[in-house]
Amino acid sequence: MTDDTDPTDWTDPETFRAALDRAETREKGNYFEAFAEGDRIEHEPGIRLSRAGNERWMAQTLNHDPAFWRTDAAAERGYDEPPIHPDYLLAATMGPSVEDLSEKGGYFLGRTDVRYRTDAVYPGTELRVDSTVIETKASGSRPEYGIVTWETTGRDAETGDALVSYRRTNMIPRRDPDESVETDGGQTAGEQPDTDADPRLPDELLTPDGECFEDFRTALDDAEGRDAAVAYRHERGRTIDDALLAGLPLATLNTAKQHHDAAAMADSPSGESVVYGDVTRSIALAHARSDERTFRELGYDDERFHDFVTAGDTIYGFTRVLGASETPTIDVPSGVDATDTAGEVRFQHVAFNQNEEPVYSGTRTALIEMRD
Ligand SMILES: C/C(=C\C(=O)O)C(=O)SCCNC(=O)CCNC(=O)[C@H](O)C(C)(C)COP(=O)(O)OP(=O)(O)OC[C@H]1O[C@@H](n2cnc3c(N)ncnc32)[C@H](O)[C@@H]1OP(=O)(O)O
């Protein structure tokens, strides 16, 4: 039987609303119950890392380092041509994983162990992404969610070689939220947070005199033995507009409704669309990179997203220098030779908004050029 002779006008507004009420929704994404420790998931979507996509990401996030834009500057940095930017590679790896892992909603809690596996990735590379479930646990604070950690790897689709990998943790909604679910120790109402931590800042916050490895090391040496830290803010800000809000996550195939479905988000705790965490952190890191001579990015750890960022907010950056060493303390990607060229600096970066509230923090390990 066909509907060709159906006299009902399905587009009549009242009829249509009734149809919507009765129709089942073909859902996207997975609930918490779908994930079991050890599961390996090969993500179906793939992405081609194009020069246009790269330049769009870098331009909008203020990552304007000429080595990623101009052939002569790239050659000086030891690249064959302007490569794919590390932030874009990371976001383009996370994007294709979202449909399977986090499209159902929930909070992006954090990421750690971000490591680049190869020196340079060039435009034209096609990415294939896979993830393994590392841990699943109940949320003590929000029984309607579970907490899942995955290890995700972005690979060159042609060779299968790993290009970048990381561990990410999200809160994922349960299919059947049940108040009686066994939780494992979230803070309950009335319980006070641990206040043992000393909130006092050092007397002095020092700023390095320049942008090279030696400047960071000298500033750290100056702080040594005094009540001081090397910490400073960056001047630039970037206000969240349409180019950033839905445009960049969708350009990396990130299907999380948080960023592009304003109607769905009107009913959520933020009340509106929220900015993709990778956009927020890329802007703050760009502010920091504009005040240093970055040679290579090595990795990121302990990344946390402290609060929602929404349209109209402005993202600023704050940096604390944690350490400097001539010999790298974490693995340098194959193909990088930085001897006598660059030293390793460890930073803590904080992205904050126009109300001076932190929205992102994380540590970053990078090779910073030595003075010529
Ligand atoms: C969707 C997307 C990408 C994608 O995915 O597609 C995005 O880009 S979206 C944009 C970026 N994002 C945000 O906009 C979130 C902003 N942020 C907040 O709105 C608040 O920060 C909060 C509501 C998330 C938390 O607020 P909060 O409740 O005060 O925070 P906490 O109590 O610290 O954490 C609660 C529970 O998460 C456990 N937990 C925390 N961090 C980790 C971690 N790193 N590893 C393992 N477990 C962790 C914690 O252990 C506690 O567990 P319990 O529930 O068992 O107590």
Low confidence ranges:
183-192
How many structural units, i.e. domains?
1
Spatial extent as radius of gyration = 23 Å
Query: Which oligomeric form is depicted?
Result: single chain
- Give the distance, in angstroms, between the N- and C-terminal Cα atoms: 79 Å
Question: Largest beta sheet, briefly?
Answer: 13 strands, mixed
CATH topology: Thiol Ester Dehydrase, Chain A
Count of discrete alpha- or pi-helical segments spanning 4 or more residues: 10
Residue fraction in strands: 25-35%
Ligand inventory: Mesaconyl Coenzme A
Residue share in helix: 10-25%
Q: Could you state the CATH homologous superfamily?
A: Hotdog Thioesterase
In brief, what are we looking at here?
By secondary structure, this protein is of the alpha+beta class. The protein has 10 helices and 13 strands.
Q: Would you write up a description of this structure?
A:
This protein is an alpha+beta fold. The chain has a single domain (32-194, 201-369), classed as Thiol Ester Dehydrase, Chain A, CATH 3.10.129. It contains 10 helices and 13 strands. Strands 1, 2, 3, 4, 5, 6, 7, 8, 9, 10, 11, 12 and 13 form a 13-stranded mixed sheet that branches. Residues 183-192 have low confidence and may be disordered. Mesaconyl Coenzme A (OA9) binds at residues 98, 102, 107-110, 139-142, 147, 169-170, 186, 256, 258, 274, 276-277, 304-308. Residues 170-202 are annotated as: Disordered.
